[in-house]
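To start, one record:
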Amino acid sequence: MPGRIPHAAIVALVPLALAAASAGAVRAQTLVNGCPVGTVPVRCPGWSAPGINLQGADFAGADLSGANLEGANLAGADLQLADLHGANLAGANLASARLRRTNLERSGLDGANLAGANLWGAYLQGAALSGAILKGADLTGADLENADLSDADLTNAVARSANVEGAKLKGAKLGDAIWIDGSHCNGKSVGACLRFAPP
């Protein structure tokens, strides 16, 4: 289509814009599929950029509600206080991303990599996290009401004070996790937190 940026160009442009911003240069509005990436905060509800490389990007306070970022690389990105409700992040790489108090209500995170991510106080009500990798993630105080965590890997995750009412945990690996009441799940915990037997 006329005026549409080819995907290869998108992938090439974004890291350059982000590198310039991080170097202290003036933040230019680099349009990527119609979204001014490089400005803070970003306002792009409904943005479609599946598979894009946004590693380490600054999206703090951004409006990315309903965005399609399936398979995107957001490793180490700052998404604190961002609005991603209803977004498609299936298969995305969010390893070590900062997602404190991020709105991920009803978002699609099936198969996403959230290993080591900071999800402190994040809103994940009704989110789809089936098969997601949450190893070592911090879910302290997160709201996971009615979220689908089936077959997710929460090994070594911290879920102290999280709300898991109505959450689906079938097949979820909870070995060595710190559970909602602060108890330590034993290494064989699957589908439920099995406490260590008293000595």
